[in-house]
Design brief:
With 267 residues, this protein is mostly helical. The chain contains 13 helices and no strands. Helix 2 packs antiparallel against helix 3.
């Protein structure tokens, strides 16, 4: 009797969980129109009027907001980015005095930034006169400082810039002279104006990015190993192209950048 070698069948290989996840992602096909409106909403909310006009033509969509109205926010944020805080405050009050009246914290932050700019100019030369900075602090900030412990702390820290040389400042003081302070306050002003106008203060696209990050974190906590180590959401291949397009775009939108840096959400 001849024995027959019977080979046992090879057990099927289980599909890795991350393969199943990526297949489900590929099955989701968002509408191109929805994506276009997300992009337009971002451009309008964050104040890129030239880019919004161009995109509206290329995508053949009608903006849901008046693009021309963006220019007011562009001018205000441009004034802040350039250090002309007095002009920014005046333009905000022309737009709506309620914006600063109803937000004492934002008003104080703008005035403190104006003090920083005065100190920057007053200390630019060894024999510069610091009187304008002291007078501004006394008349504009000192009366407001007692109303809030944080105001008082911020004022004291800002005035310390008059004592120490700019090249030997502690990190907590050096940050006051960095462009990021202008950028952060300009963002707060933009959000306050949008809120005053009854609009969302943050673009839907940013909310979606935050939601995606939250969902990924929860998924990893719930089922470790159930997701790939890195989730490619398909933005990187277009990164260089979008950067080049933005850098070649209308210079009117450059005012919305910080020292020439492209908004991270635009890159």
């Amino acid at each position: 009797m001849t024995s027959t070698n019977i080979m046992s069948p090879t057990p099927p290989t289980a599909t890795p969980a991350w393969h199943r996840f990526e297949r489900k992602v590929d099955e989701v096909k968002p509408s191109k129109t929805d994506i276009n409106y997300l992009v337009m909403d971002y451009l309008v909310t964050n104040g890129y009027p030239a880019a919004a006009k161009r995109f509206a033509v290329e995508a053949n969509i009608q903006p849901k907001a008046d693009i021309e109205s963006i220019q007011e926010r562009v001018e205000i944020r441009g004034a802040i980015h350039s250090g002309d805080i007095q002009t920014a405050i005046e333009k905000i009050n022309e737009l709506s005095p309620q914006i600063l009246d109803e937000d004492p914290s934002l008003h104080f932050s703008l005035l403190r930034l104006q003090l920083v700019e005065l100190i920057r100019r007053c200390t630019s030369t060894p024999d510069a006169d610091i009187t304008p900075a002291l007078e501004f602090a006394t008349s504009q900030l000192a009366p407001r400082a007692p109303t809030n412990p944080q105001f008082l702390e911020d004022l004291e820290r800002t005035l310390a810039l008059l004592i120490f040389p700019s090249e030997n400042l502690a990190p907590s003081l050096a940050t006051l002279l960095q462009p990021n302070l202008r950028k952060d306050i300009a963002t707060r002003v933009n959000e306050a104006i949008l809120k005053n106008q009854g609009a969302r203060k943050e673009a839907r696209l940013r909310n979606l990015v935050k939601l995606r990050a939250w969902a990924e974190q929860k998924a990893r906590e719930t089922k470790p190993g159930g997701l790939p180590d890195h989730l490619n959401i398909g933005l990187y291949p277009e990164k260089q192209q979008s950067t080049n397009e933005h850098s070649n775009g209308n210079s009117d939108d450059a005012i919305m950048t910080n020292n020439g840096d492209i908004d991270p959400m635009m890159a």
